Amino acid sequence: xxxLLIMAKKCSKCKIFKKNIEFKKHRCHADGxxxxxxxxxxxxxKTPEVRNRDLKAQRIWRKKNPLKEKEYCRRFRESxxxxxxxxxxxxxxxxxxxxxxxxxLLKSQNFCCAICNRHESNFKKQLSIDHDHETxxxxxxxxxxxxIALGEFRENISILETAISYLLKHKKxxxxx
Length: 177
What we know:
CATH topology of the domain at 87-157: His-Me finger endonuclease fold
Strand order of the largest sheet: 1-2
Low-confidence stretches: 1-5
Number of strands: 6
Largest sheet: 2 strands, antiparallel
Number of helices: 8
Shape: elongated
Order of helices and strands: HEEEEHHHHHEEHH
CATH class of the domain at 87-157: Alpha Beta
Strand content: 5-15%
Distance between the termini: 96 Å
């Protein structure tokens, strides 16, 4: 019974006994844990008054400490978590797609461009998401060169066919000439 009391604690907010892992660490308290459970703290911090208060305090701190803020942002952008977060945000914003979908598509294409079939390790930048500009449906992942080429041809099949005919015509002339 004594061991049970040590492994559990009563939340001062919801009055429910919960496991110690459901409480944040707090070195000022005798048991080393906060008096409220993580869930109650989370619900409290989501209230509009507290959220607005915290955002205001953050804005004030950033104004007073621009160099520290700049350094913090730089370290975040360079961290693995930051890079993944930014990549996920950009994919969601531009293509209404998540990073998991991008990675699944990349794996299904064997990490290669869908047109030239070169591996992504051959490029400095990641493969671009190719999508239909009218329907916004994602078609595949392309290298920068192939993506720009499609854009320059305005995704017009007849222009692409004309370009192919042009190349074939001049290849035949080179071979016969």
